[in-house]
Amino acid sequence: MPSQPNAHRASAVPARSFQRRRSAIACALACLLLLAATAAMAQGPLRTDAPDRYVVQPGDTLWGIAERFLSEPWRWRQIWQANPGIANPSRIYPGDVLVVDRSSGSPRIRKAHGGGGLRTVKLSPRVRVEELDREIPTIPVNAVAPFLSRPLITTAEEIDSAPYVVGFPEEKIIAGLGDTLFVRSITTTRNDRWDVLRPGRAYRDPDTNELLGYVATSVASAQLERLGDPATLVVTRSHKEVEVGDRVRPAQDEEPIRSFLPRPATAGMRGRIIAVLNGVSQIGQFDVVALNRGRREGVEVGTVFAAYQGGELRRDRVQARRSGWNWRSETPADTSFWFGDWELDGWNRGRPDPNAPLPLHRRASRADGQFIVPDSRTGVVMVFRTFEKVSFALVMRANQAIHVGEVVAPPRSL
């Protein structure tokens, strides 16, 4: 009987030793995971070849600057550290010095002290001086300037209710710069500047066939001379000849795109490229595209999508070479005889007499004779103008030619 406690203690020692070893191993693994996570956090979204210091140049854009530091420029806000000790801390100007600050363990981009402070502007008598070193815009403004106010997406109701050109003096059939327009009907207005627009093609959702709106392209700008029905307007700027039926609307001044920062589309948001606004067939960098998603779906100015191609069915040529079916070669002993992957899809020759005992000339192919093309990223687009059901986006990056119909979705990390 006295030996039993000793035996119990002897068996307990290896158990406790095993538990200690297991705890030590678990602790070591946890430390390794913590170190790996810390290293990943320390690197963050920075590129491996990111500069430690960059001087902002005239002509730079926020997107271009972000690409110097990040593989995914839309993540700029995650690492940008606005310096509260200088004027306009969230804006960047030519001459500002950007540095990588790793002092906090997680890298941040900030302005160097002494750069981007208060600026001195010299004033001369009788000369109006504007600030020459305007803040750096988010995207190339010259690429989107023609699309900030024109064209626009409108509805059939808006087209029907808008004042329209009904004619011209002296029985003209078109009008140009300096010509007078008769417009029905403008009886009250606070605006004397008007845009002349021409309703164009309809945009439809390629998946649901829903009518998303009509494109109204800019034809001319005009000055209101007299209210009435018809009212009279004079063409002050002409892009095309004005025709009877063109619509007019009060001119609208768009705010310059300078103050927003890109942000990725929300999870689950998907759409398609439905048109390219400059009429090319293959879309490249700085082309403007229309998307079948707008304010209704939560798209905002600055929303970033990645464009993807793939998903279509293609013929498997390898399987096609093995599609010569011979019914004589199969037996009931072969499982493919009962559960085979062949599909009868036609006749090699003219259809035989229905009284023929066997379909000697039937054609068959394997059911797996097609495959789905994996999707791949073709580029990145950023929305700069939104409508209710449509938005305009600028192609910021093109890995290859992008095409109308490609899917846009939140960008996945590379």
UniProtKB/TrEMBL annotation:
Highest taxon, organism lineage: Bacteria
InterPro entries in UniProt: Bact_Kbp, LysM, LysM_dom_sf
Signal found in the keyword field: yes
Alphabetical UniProt keywords: Signal
Ranges for domain LysM: 52-100
Pfam (any one): LysM
Protein name: Peptidoglycan-binding protein
